[in-house]
Amino acid sequence: MRLLLLGGTAEGRVLAKALHPRVDIVSSLAGRVPDPALPVGPVRVGGFGGVGGLRRWLRDERIDAVVDATHPFAATMTAHAAQVCGELRIPLLVLARPAWDPGSAIVVDSDGEAAQTVERNRYSRIFLTTGRSGTRAFTGSEAWFLIRAVTEPDGAWLPRRHRLVLSRGPYHYDDELALLRDHRIEALVTKNSGGDMTRAKLDAAGALGIPVVMVARPPLPAGVVTAASVDEATSWVARLANR
Ligand code: NAP
User: Fold this and answer.
1) 135 CB under 6 A from ligand 1?
2) Pocket test for ligand 1, best of 33, 43, 66, 77 (most atoms within 8 A of CB)
3) Which domain of life does this protein belong to (predicted)?
4) Which residue among 118, 152, 162, 223 is least enclosed by CB atoms within 10 Å?
5) Are residues 184 and 154 in the same domain?
6) Three-state SS for 37?
7) Cα–ligand 1 centroid distance for 30 (angstroms)
C-alpha cells in the first residue's frame, strides 16, 4: 500500500515515524517554513497546484490512501484532499488533534472577529499568536501587540505598534507566564489549535486572569473519517493494509 501523508505538524512527523519503513509513505509539506522539521522517509515539498494538481499527483504516484495530518486551520488543503479522495475513491483519514476546551475564552469564528473583539473591549496590550497570516486582521489597530509566529508575516500585514518574536514551540508554562508578565499583556488572541505544544499560554493566561480571545476551528468537510491521535491513525492504516 502506498500512502500520502499530508504533514506540516508534529503529529505528521510522529505518524511518519510510526509507519516508515513498514508502509510505503510519502510525506508532503506545504513548504512555507524555510527550515522545516522533516519527517522520516520520503518527503515532497510544495503545493500540488489545487484540486486538479492533487488529482493528477495521486494518480501518477499510484496512491492507495491518504492521511491528512495538516494543522486544524489548514482548511483549504483538507477540503482539497476530501474532494479529490472522494472522486477517486481513495480512503482518507483526517488526523484531527482534539480542540482545546475554550473554558471562559471569548470564542470567535475568524481573525476579523477576533480583531473586532479586541477593539470592542479596548484591550491595549495583546499577545497575538494566530500565525503568519493571522496578523492581517489587526493591521488597522492602534493597540500594542506582542506577535509570536514561526515565520515572518508580510510587513504590510503588521499592526503599527508591535514586537515580533519568531519562534517554534513547544512552549513551557513558566516561560509563558514570564512573557505575559514582562510585556504587561492584557489579552491573549489564539487559534484553537489544540495539542500540548502550545497550550501553556492558555494556562498562564488563566493563572494571571488575562482574557483569551479564541478563534474556533473551521469545520471539517462533511462525512470525513477522523482520528484523534497518532495511535488511532496507525490502527486505521494497519486495517487498510491488511484488507
Ligand atoms: P491551507 O490554507 O489549507 O493550504 C493552502 C495551500 O497550501 C493548499 O491549497 C496547498 O496548495 C498547500 N498546502 C497546504 N498544506 C500542504 C501540504 N501538507 N502539502 C502540500 N501542499 C500543502 O494551509 P496553510 O494554513 O497554508 O498551512 C500550510 C501548512 O502549514 C500545512 O501543512 C499545515 O499543516 C501547516 N501549518 C498550518 C498552520 C495554520 O495555522 N494554518 C499552523 C501550523 C502549521 P495547492 O492548492 O497548490 O495544493
Assistant:
1) no
2) 77
3) Bacteria
4) 223
5) yes
6) coil
7) 5
The answer to whether the CB of 47 is under 6 A from ligand 1 is yes
The x, y and z cell numbers of residue 238, run together, are: 494497519
Query: 3-state secondary structure string, 130-183?
Result: CCCHHHHHHCCCCCEEEEEECCCCCHHHCCCEEEEEECCCCCCHHHHHHHHHHC
Q: How many domains does the chain have?
A: 2
Among all chains, which residue has been given the C-alpha cell 486538479?
Answer: 52
- Which residue CA neighbors atom 15 of ligand 1 most closely? 30
**190/231 same-domain check:** no
- List the domain range (segments joined by +) for residue 85: 2-98+218-242
Tell me the three cell numbers of residue 89: 475513491
Contacts of 46 (CB under 8 A, 6+ apart): 29, 30, 31
- Mean pLDDT split into 10-residue runs, the chain, 243 residues: 96 97 97 92 98 98 98 97 98 97 97 98 98 95 97 92 95 98 98 96 98 98 97 97 86
Q: Grid coordinates representing 36? A: 522545516
